[in-house]
Design a protein that fits this description.
This protein has 297 residues and is of the alpha/beta class. The protein contains eleven helices and eight strands. α3 crosses α4, α7 runs parallel beside α8 and α9 packs parallel to α10. Bound molecules: guanosine-5'-diphosphate.
């Protein structure tokens, strides 16, 4: 098993633990089975509505496919969960140039994730460039600069308090001049003022659309998995402020709340694209829904 999978499973073990093992350890499919399963899914932070709808879907699948025991039901539930958390194919910018706009509140792991993504794509032969458009705190650009150096990629920054859209404008000029093919933009996550956040993000997007027409932009929201249901509340608030294309879920190496992934994807209808499983530069992986669902149950 890869180092990453071991870490992921260790992290999820607290969720997975005895509940699911006990439930799937028995054989007979009964009403009690569905009740216990739903309860355990809710306890694992999958949310009431999401758990209820998954259990309903499982009932139907068991009927349709004439499944006979809990082992078969488990496999069916894994595939149902996988469908909901990773409904689309690979990350759209895997094989073409584009912009990743990173949003999320401070402390969730935005900076770290940007550094890891830059490293990951550079090692695949891509040419990433970073834009330090969180100009709200001087420390944000400094921290991002450290990650840019670590990953060995260029970064554009301005002074604290300057216009984030102007940073993006300059970063795009540099991106073009250097022949880069992946622009990763950090933004300030001031969720307490939704109107400001909305204006700031839409201004940044306008600059990107104008300066890089026809270049796809993916807005990815970074969420800290250890915050459980609070991560879902943040996700809903950000979805109001900006269209989201996907989620980066961090700190899965140390959480009892891995199930929240299922709830977030099911509620927002966006896929998880990357997961963070540690603080090192290699500790970010593309998200595999099937693998995750398996680790979860
Ligand atoms: P930001 O404020 O959103 O930019 O957050 P940072 O990138 O500075 O990260 C905040 C803290 O979370 C730092 O101490 C990181 O090392 C830590 N962190 C980020 N991602 C992960 C992860 O996947 N696993 C663990 N264990 N820690 C992480």
């Amino acid at each position: 098993m890869s180092n990453f999978l071991t870490k992921l499973k260790d992290g999820l073990k607290k969720t997975r633990n005895s509940w699911f093992d006990a439930i799937f350890g028995e054989d007979r499919i009964s009403d009690e089975f569905f009740e216990e399963l739903e309860e355990s899914m809710i306890l694992a932070d999958m949310g009431v509505e999401t758990s209820t709808s998954l259990v309903e879907a499982l009932r139907q699948r068991i009927k349709d496919d004439k499944l006979k025991n809990r082992a078969e039901a488990r496999e069916a539930l894994i595939s149902l969960i996988a469908q909901r958390i990773a409904p689309e194919g690979s990350f759209p910018l895997d094989d073409k140039a584009g912009v990743i706009l990173i949003v999320g509140v401070n402390g969730v792991g935005k900076t770290t994730s940007i550094g890891k993504i830059a490293h990951e794509y550079k090692s695949r032969g891509r040419k990433p460039m970073l834009a330090a458009a969180d100009t709200f705190r001087a420390a944000a650009a400094e921290q991002l600069g450290i990650w840019a150096e670590r990953a060995g990629v260029p970064m554009v920054r301005h002074q604290e308090g300057s216009d984030p859209a102007a940073v993006v404008y300059d970063a795009i000029a540099s991106y073009k001049a250097k022949g880069c093919d992946l622009l990763i933009v950090d933004t300030a996550g001031r969720l307490h003022n939704k109107k400001n956040l909305m204006n700031e993000l839409s201004k940044i997007r306008k600059v990107i659309e104008r300066e890089l027409p026809n270049v796809p932009c993916q807005v990815l929201l970074v969420l800290d998995a250890t915050t459980g249901q609070n991560a879902l509340a943040q996700a809903l608030a950000f979805q109001e402020a900006s269209d989201l294309d996907g989620v980066i879920l961090t700190k899965l190496d140390g959480t009892a709340k891995g199930g929240v992934v299922v709830n977030i994807c099911n509620t927002l209808h966006v896929p998880v694209r990357f997961i963070g499983v540690g603080e090192g530069i290699d500790d970010l992986k593309p998200f595999d829904g099937q693998e995750f669902a398996q680790a979860l149950l």
